[in-house]
Specification:
By secondary structure, the protein is of the alpha/beta class. It has eleven helices and nine strands. Helix content is 45%, strand content 17%. The longest helix has 42 residues.
Length: 312
């Protein structure tokens, strides 16, 4: 007997996620919207992840569990899930985040009723710590309901920081027109820009998603951006010709615009957004980082200059 195709495909990439995995899985499987498949791609975990996944797959027929023979990197693992998806809509789900009750229902109702030009919907997000306690980290609001691609591109370049909309609900056919998650720092920013080139992104007013911040997240667990490159793709280990993250990100924004099917005039205006919106923002960020470092060094010097010489 043929298995019916679910409306939504949820892709959960995981590597050594035993600490938070059960909480993440429960928050998905307990949603009141049930017409979905949950595809888990285990990136050759060495902890109890495999046992947990198999346990849940044995209990719930909506789960399709895959285990990679070797670690193919975060990018490969994320993107593999899209190729396995069968649903009209797709969403990624991290192994350490939490979907609050009503997440799927609200997202599917919004995108199903929206015009076809709306290609991604995502609810508001709050951050939690390793114990599930809400923490006050400001997140961007991303809502690009403007008609022209260059306007939506400016919204992305101006606003995206945490890129939490990446965990919203996509139209699967639109998502497959992008390059998905590439192997460089802030690849999710570029993904959202590519999506904005293709259509509108709507933010729902309800807070239905919790992004967990802890010591094991990629930007904390990896000591520098070179290690982060290898986390994205292990085959990059040992390569010396990396571009620094800001240069690479600007280049990838430009590539995303260049490969789009937009008219030349629209692409030119989109490119101008990189120089008029993103570059000043990036420069201001670097200036702020430099000032903070300088202020810290000044405080240290003042502290030591005030100590008696014999204590030094």
């Amino acid at each position: 007997m043929a298995t019916s195709i679910p409306k939504v495909s949820i892709g959960l990439p995981v590597y050594n996620g035993e600490k938070y995995l059960r909480t993440a899985l429960d928050s998905i499987l307990q949603q009141d919207y049930t017409d979905f498949e949950l595809i888990i791609s285990d990136n050759a975990s060495t902890d109890a992840t495999q046992n947990i996944c198999q346990e849940y797959a044995d209990k719930d027929r909506r789960i399709r569990y895959y285990r990679n023979g070797n670690n193919i990197g975060a990018s490969g693992n994320y993107n593999q899930l899209v190729t396995l998806a069968r649903g009209e809509y797709f969403k990624w789900a991290a192994h350490d985040d939490v979907h609050l009750p009503g997440f799927l229902r609200c997202c599917i109702e919004a995108i199903a009723q929206a015009p076809a030009r709306v290609v991604l919907v995502a609810p508001k997000t709050e951050t939690i710590d390793e114990h599930g306690k809400i923490i006050n980290i400001p997140l961007e609001s991303l809502d690009t309901r403007r008609p022209r691609p260059y306007q939506r591109v400016k919204d992305i370049l101006r606003s995206v920081s945490w890129a939490t909309a990446q965990f919203g609900l996509f139209r699967t056919d639109t998502l497959k027109k992008t390059r998905l998650i590439q192997s460089f720092f802030a690849a999710d920013h570029v993904l959202l820009l590519e999506v904005a080139l293709l259509g509108e992104i709507w933010e729902l007013p309800e807070t239905l998603f919790q992004r967990r911040v802890h010591s094991g997240i990629s930007t904390t667990a990896n000591k520098n951006w070179r290690e982060l490159q290898v986390w994205f793709n292990p085959s990059q280990k040992g390569l010396k010709n990396y571009l620094p993250p800001p240069l690479r990100l600007g280049l990838e924004f430009s590539r995303a615009i260049a490969r789009s099917q937009l008219p030349l005039r629209e692409r030119v205006i989109c490119h101008l957004g990189i120089f008029m919106v993103w570059l000043p923002r990036e420069c201001q960020t670097l200036i702020t980082i430099y000032r903070n470092k300088l202020a810290f060094r000044t405080r240290v010097r003042k502290f030591f200059s005030g100590l008696p010489r014999e204590s030094l």
